[in-house]
């Protein structure tokens, strides 16, 4: 798996990373922290700034009715029909839903506070959160939730790995990487600078598949450069002791995986990862070609 570094705004993080679990998508106001209420309101203001840009568009300025827009935001969260200004509200409702279902933010935001911030901004009302502090409010709240989420996942992963390492056929390296040999390969092992050809399936400790060559490459092996920084550390280490034809199950703690970063909607901060890995082949010294 190639290491992907994404530089995106906190707003994009709020609205794009979704969790597919069927748990609740928002806290009750009674359960919200003051920071969560302010972050929700700030998120609404942020959305309002986007709507304002639509209002300033000559093609949209006469057709965007705020009352219909607000109905559309609420309506999307209840999955109704949509059109015109209502349809624009629906599109913003999708962003709100993404934030409410975000793996890190879930349970910490309020739908009503988000929409209140959005509509207060658009209706030029006095706002509880100053516009110039919107991004900092969102960022601070996200970072606090990110830290808490990562700590929880690390604890979960450590408990899982402790059980796995007790199995007699599981080996552990000094770095903390654990692995099980399913099928030993033959010949030499690849080294840094080689081009490896692998098949893999990646799962969380809960068993959720988040990536695989079967799903994303038609079942065919994929070629990747075995170089420092090109792959997650757990892969870089494991591939150097695997042999051609070898099949291993890798148990990768977060510090050898993606660390405290959230990768899309499937890999949470601090997540321990499991990979079924097959080293199909490798080419000596061709990583940079």
TrEMBL record:
Tell me which positions the record assigns to the signal sequence: 1-21
- What reactions does this protein catalyze? [protein]-peptidylproline (omega=180) = [protein]-peptidylproline (omega=0)
> Which superkingdom heads the taxonomic lineage of this protein's source?
Bacteria
| Family indicated by similarity | Belongs to the FKBP-type PPIase family.
SUPFAM superfamilies from the entry?
Answer: FKBP-like (SSF54534)
A Pfam family per the record: FKBP_N
Tell me the protein's name. Peptidyl-prolyl cis-trans isomerase
